């Protein structure tokens, strides 16, 4: 697995109808808390030099510290918090701001593709949408078709993170994970995505939705995440190759039983719970989406999206 970029992709179709993407950025601007050699070893190698840190804690020997580095940084040398106050592991305050960052050249990442700066870009075989949903949303599912995939993007909702202006634990609408970044009318943006399905000769990628953050009744994450997410990417790649490893559901195509490689996980995963599609939850999602689309788009809502929402509710009612 090699990297071209970790954030922004500029995409366009080439003369052969293949969707290609470039990374317009020169580096990584990543959230520091939680980043460590276990969760993101390549990021830790990337930031060893030529890196700007903002709102992290500083150790008295000139190093940096944030929550997640407890096993890698000796805090006994003394730590100054992001607020300029002396900090110890016994304090009930955060050493680093929740949205503290590191900014480093992408060229320092060990897994960068050798041609990551090629103007031809990289061909796109799959588009993956995703949000933080503690309940109701399966680990991964595939859109039924391009129009359905565009609907999934427009319908995205996610628990707010430290990078957002909202308090955490709030489930907010975040269409295409682009809510703060739309540069023009939302309805026109959706129409632009929908238009590619009507243009002959285009090789449209499959669209998927992932949710690494579903929690069980005990409040703990049901999926280990981080590097183990490659198991989900493996299934996605197999679906791109049209392998028969998916089954229909009211919300899209889910992995068939035993289709997801779970060998070697540190702890067992409750697959049934991880991929369950609770009908009441999703019927409520439909109501939330109807209200949201009505308030934000009203008569400008593209008819194909309204039809996808109607069909979703119909499929759910049939499975109630």
From TrEMBL:
One of its GO terms (molecular function) is manganese ion binding. This is PEPCK_GTP domain-containing protein. It holds the Pfam family PEPCK_GTP. It comes from the Eukaryota. It comes from Macrostomum lignano. Residues 1-314 form the Phosphoenolpyruvate carboxykinase C-terminal P-loop domain. GO terms for cellular component: cytosol. PANTHER family: PHOSPHOENOLPYRUVATE CARBOXYKINASE, PHOSPHOENOLPYRUVATE CARBOXYKINASE [GTP]-RELATED. The lineage of its organism: Eukaryota, Metazoa, Spiralia, Lophotrochozoa, Platyhelminthes.
């Amino acid at each position: 697995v090699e990297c071209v970029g970790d954030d922004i992709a500029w995409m366009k179709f080439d003369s052969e109808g293949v969707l290609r993407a470039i990374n317009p950025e020169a580096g990584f601007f990543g959230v520091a808390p939680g980043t460590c050699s276990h969760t993101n070893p390549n990021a830790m190698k990337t930031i060893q030099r030529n890196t700007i840190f903002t709102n992290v804690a500083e150790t008295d020997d000139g190093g940096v510290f944030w929550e997640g580095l407890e096993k890698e940084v000796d805090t006994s040398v003394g730590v100054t918090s992001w607020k300029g106050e002396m900090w110890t592991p016994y304090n009930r305050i955060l050493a680093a701001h929740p949205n503290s960052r590191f900014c480093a050249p992408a060229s320092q990442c060990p897994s960068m593709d050798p041609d990551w700066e090629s103007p031809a870009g990289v061909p796109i075989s799959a588009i993956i949408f995703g949000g933080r949903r503690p309940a109701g949303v399966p680990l991964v599912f595939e859109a039924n078709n391009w129009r359905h995939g565009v609907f999934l993007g427009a319908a995205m909702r996610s628990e707010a993170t430290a990078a957002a202006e909202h308090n955490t634990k709030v489930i907010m609408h975040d269409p295409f994970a682009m809510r703060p970044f739309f540069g023009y009318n939302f309805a026109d943006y959706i129409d632009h995505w929908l238009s590619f399905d009507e243009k002959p000769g285009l090789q449209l990628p499959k669209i998927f939705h992932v949710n690494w953050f579903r929690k069980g009744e005990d409040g703990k994450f049901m999926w280990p995440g981080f590097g183990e997410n490659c198991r989900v990417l493996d299934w996605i790649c197999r679906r791109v190759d049209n392998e028969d490893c998916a089954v229909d559901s009211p919300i899209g195509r889910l992995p068939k039983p035993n289709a997801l490689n779970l060998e070697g996980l540190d702890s067992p995963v409750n697959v049934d719970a991880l991929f369950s599609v609770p009908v009441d939850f999703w019927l409520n999602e439909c109501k939330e989406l109807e209200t949201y689309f009505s308030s934000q788009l009203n008569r400008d809502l593209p008819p194909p999206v309204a039809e996808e929402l109607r069909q979703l509710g119909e499929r759910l009612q049939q499975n109630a």
